[in-house]
Write a structure and sequence with these properties.
heterodimer, A: alpha/beta, Glutathione S-transferase Yfyf (Class Pi), Chain A, domain 2, Rossmann fold, 4-stranded parallel sheet, 8 strands, B: mainly alpha, 2 domains, 9 helices, 53% helix, binds iron/sulfur cluster
Chain lengths: 254, 173
């Protein structure tokens, strides 16, 4: 399976570390990913502004992957959700025809042949090959968009385990984290900054109560939110955590 | 209508739980919308956390609130951050954070200074000064993205004739 890496806009700045460590980990595992001239997924903001623009933006990204016969893997749950949602809509021939009508202006076409993955799905499949780490106590924090709405998520939103399973397999000591699938408040940054701070701090507080030495994230917005409101509890993208604490060389997958 | 007013969506709701005055109430906002077509500006405060997916009647409140926001946009009532976001994507191809914040400031939107400060501190800690203060940069795809915008907007300028009205789950049958 060929994979195209979709970094998402945040990888240009606030999510740089997450994207970098993911690429490094994938490379060390021998999982090759191709890089493309991807555009912004638009998020729900562009979806609400103009559905057709939002459909076409995501269709362009899917078309780019399809041109090189690759599936998409992304670090960002928002991009994951938008790409997946549009991909489902574009399985309908009529919608696809209409959206391809827009893409014709940039000489592109999407035929519906790409699958979209989040990096947690890809790494979970090769968890046995991941390096073993020292048993640090971590809280696995999912946030929202990787789980909800359920038809677009990676695991059962009521009791997800994919993240803990992966972290435990590599040797982390994963604490019981009550608020693991609650919202970090990040989307409120511009509309309700007090609410944003309150929310993000409450997640950090719960992690501390649960005995965590560090919070592991899988979303660049969660990472930003939990990190920016405080500096006592370390918050790290899970791929960085694995790389940092690996105590043996990573085996290249055959 | 599909909604039977059980309040599950509101009990689970991130934004409702943050609002001590109890004004943010998706159940009530949706009722006003379904019954009288009334929009509530509070829809802009939805965290898009999708906790309300648990609705036992399959209403998808997050989609109803999204439809309210889309309706505001169709009426030309577009919040500054939405405008700045869309314009940045349109001309840069990606959400260049520097360009986005410059546009926001230009529009007169005041950011919480404590957040601005800690964002800066945080960026410096993570990637050094160059990451914290980088000039806006267009992505390679910017041309194609602008083209997509002009093709679609040429057909239906936003706020006037919208291309397609999404169907909302939960509107009265
Ligand atoms: S998506 Fe919006 S309405 Fe639904 S639970 Fe979250 S904040 Fe509340
Ligand atoms: S939208 Fe669903 S969860 Fe909310 S009050 Fe109505 S029936 Fe209950």
């Amino acid at each position: 399976m060929k994979l195209a890496f979709f970094p998402g806009c945040s990888a240009r700045s606030s999510g740089m570390e997450y994207a970098k460590s993911t690429l490094e980990l994938l490379e060390k595992l021998g999982i090759e990913v191709s890089r493309h001239d991807f555009n912004c997924c638009g998020t729900h903001i562009v979806e609400e502004y103009s559905r057709d623009i939002w459909l076409a933006l995501n269709a362009r990204n899917l078309a780019l992957a399809e041109e090189s016969k690759a599936d998409i893997v992304t670090t960002c749950p928002a991009c994951y959700q938008n790409l997946k949602k549009v991909n489902i809509e574009l399985q309908d021939e009529e919608v696809r025809k209409r959206v391809n009508g827009i893409l014709a202006s940039i000489n592109r076409e999407y035929n519906g042949g790409v699958s979209v993955f989040h990096v947690i799905e890809v790494l979970s499949k090769v968890a046995d090959k991941l390096p073993q780490v020292e048993g640090k106590k971590v809280a696995a924090y999912y946030g929202c968009q990787i789980l909800r709405p359920p038809e677009l998520g990676v695991d059962n939103p009521e009791n997800p385990t994919i993240f803990e399973d992966l972290l435990e397999k590599v040797g982390f000591n994963v604490v019981d984290f009550r608020v693991k699938a609650e919202c970090c408040g990040g989307t409120l940054l511009l509309t309700n900054s007090e609410g944003f701070k309150k929310r993000a701090l409450s997640i950090v507080r719960e992690a501390k109560k649960a005995g965590a030495e560090c919070i592991a994230t899988l979303c660049p917005l969660c990472q930003f939110s939990l990190e920016v409101v405080q500096d006592k509890m370390p918050v790290k993208p899970f791929t960085s955590l694995i790389l940092e604490h690996a105590n043996k060389e990573i085996e290249v997958l055959k | 209508m599909k909604c039977y007013q059980c309040g599950t969506c509101t009990a689970d709701c991130t934004s409702a739980n943050l609002d001590e005055r109890g004004e943010f109430n998706p159940r009530r906002m949706m009722l006003d919308y379904f019954e009288r077509g009334e929009l509530s500006e509070l829809c802009w405060l939805c965290a898009s956390c999708f906790k309300c997916y648990r609705c036992p009647r399959g209403v998808k409140p997050y989609e109803v609130l999204a439809e309210m926001r889309a309706e505001y946009i169709r009426q030309g009532k577009v919040p500054a951050y939405v405008k700045a976001f869309v314009e940045t994507v349109k001309s840069y191809g990606e959400l260049d954070e520097t360009a986005f914040f410059m546009k926001l400031m230009k529009s007169g939107k005041i950011m919480d200074p404590s957040i601005v400060l800690s964002t800066l501190k945080n960026s410096i800690r993570n990637g050094g000064l160059s990451k914290a203060i980088s000039l806006p940069k267009k992505s390679k795809c910017a041309k194609e993205v602008s083209m997509i915008f002009s093709v679609v907007e040429g057909v239906s300028p936003v706020g006037e004739r919208k291309a397609e009205k999404p169907t909302v789950v939960g509107v009265p049958a």
